[in-house]
Amino acid sequence: MANFIEYNRMVESSSGGVDCSSAGLIEALPDDLFVECLVRVPLQWHANLQRVSSSFRDLVQSREYYELRKAEGTTSSFVCMLQPMPMCGGEAVPEKDFAGRAVCSPDPVHGVSLLDVNEQIWSRLPAVPGLVGGLPTCCRLVAVNGLLVVLGGWWLRTWEPSKSVFVYNFSTQTWRRGADMVNVRNFFACGAIGNKVFVAGGHDENKKALASVETFDVEANCWESLGSMREERDECTGVVLGDSFLVLSGYGSESQGAFCESAEVYDSRAKSWSFVDNMWPLISTEPAVANPSSLVALAGRLYSIRGKEVVVYSQQQNTWTAVEKVPEDTESGELKSLTITASGNSLIIMGLAKKNDDATFRSMRLLPAQGSCKAQWRTLAGNGQFTSLAQTSCAFEM
User: Fold this and answer.
1) Cα separation of 249 and 166, whole Å?
2) Spatial separation of the C-alpha atoms in residues 338 and 336, rounded to whole Å
């Protein structure tokens, strides 16, 4: 980290900026000592830190700063969720419009909710400037190196598919527009490897299932075709495991709703695809069971939700095994519509507990069993302003 600071100081000096012999980040305080304090500053204050000086900005946005925070154990785990905004007079509303006024809309308005898993604090990301109607419904969320990438979905006012891409920088706490998707697609699989977002399958504006695959380079802000998979896969599920992007299940144009058991895997190192038969044999006539809509990777293993069970995948045997049953609260009611997200070293399970006509939003944290340590379940604190099921979600560490 000291080398990084010194390098930036030299660059500033060579361009006519700060002199190499000038004081450090904070006068009369050694840089290393100050950085030790700086890595403990919570994420929500990073935007303010970057307004102090260009040196502060470069430091807070650097990969070295993140790596030091990770080494010092001062990072936090977050889950991002696409949720409808709270209701006001029977209508969904964003908290404020861009002039700071409360606004009602005849259509549900979707935004990104943020759960700090460690502190159990719920919050919302600011609205995208100029996007008064909120984000497209059913858009996809992908975390990429401290950025949140939002892709696809439908505009509720017109029900037209969206090709828009929005990128949120958690460090500067600002949005920017990304390059539009090359092709219209929805209900597609997605995931990130390095600074590239992979999108595969889904369907186009005519509801035709797709086999095509594209990548979005977040830094270069450009799209590139990656050819096609062997099969069309609408409503498929994507997950990244190591250097591989997996596209699981889905169905073709001629088999609407009949989810297949196979998967296709892209090896980003070998730049090649492979086909895996019978990877999701848990097909059922019950839609919530048949479609593996929540599939996550944690510590080199794949987890999913089947009904009310947490299942894990064995690559050697090509089988799924139930390892945990989601605990229920009899007072709250039966759990429905469960989703799963991997965050840090744990799995975040969310769902609605329904009893009579009442529904309660519940979120739980599962630390999977490891060695002689048994699995641990913990109920996460709720917030009355965040009670809707997430349409899509992703997790990141910052």
Assistant:
1) 27
2) 6
Please give the Cα distance from 87 to 105 (Å, whole number): 10
CB of 117 closer than 8 Å to CB of 133? no
In this structure, whether the domain defined by 77-295+387-397 belongs to CATH 2.120.10.80 is answered with yes
Distance in angstroms (rounded) separating the CA atoms of residues 310 and 320: 10
User: So where are the chain's domains?
Assistant: 2-72, 77-295+387-397
Mean of the per-residue pLDDT values of the chain:
82
Strands laid side by side in the 263-267 sheet: 237-241, 244-248, 263-267, 272-276
Name the token pair of 173. Answer: 């706490």
The type of residue at 278 is N
CA distance 28 to 119: 34
Q: Which two tokens stand for residue 21?
A: 């012999």
Sheet strand arrangement including 334-343:
334-343, 346-355, 358-367, 376-379
Give the Å distances, CA to CA, from 328 to 79, 303, 352, 378, 389: 22, 20, 11, 12, 17
Q: What is the per-residue pLDDT across 264-292, written as a single tens digit (0 to 9) for each?
A: 999 999 999 999 999 987 766 555 444 45
Residue 156 contacts residue 391 (beta carbons within 8 Å): no
Q: Determine contact, residues 282/320, Cβ cutoff 8 Å.
A: yes
Structure tokens at 117: 């898993």
**Euclidean distance between CA atoms 252 and 250, whole angstroms:** 7
Segment among 65-74, 255-264, 294-303, 339-348 with least mean pLDDT: 65-74
Model-level pTM? 0.82
Cα–Cα nearest to 365, from 340, 390, 397: 340
Q: Residue 194's CB: how many other CB atoms inside 10 A?
A: 13
CB 166 within 8 A of CB 153: no
Distances (CA, A) of 126 to 34, 172, 390: 30, 12, 17
Q: Output the pLDDT for position 44.
A: 66
Task: Give the SS3 label for residue 50.
Answer: coil
pLDDT in tens, 350-372: 988 888 878 888 899 999 998 88
Biggest CA-to-CA distance, the chain? 71
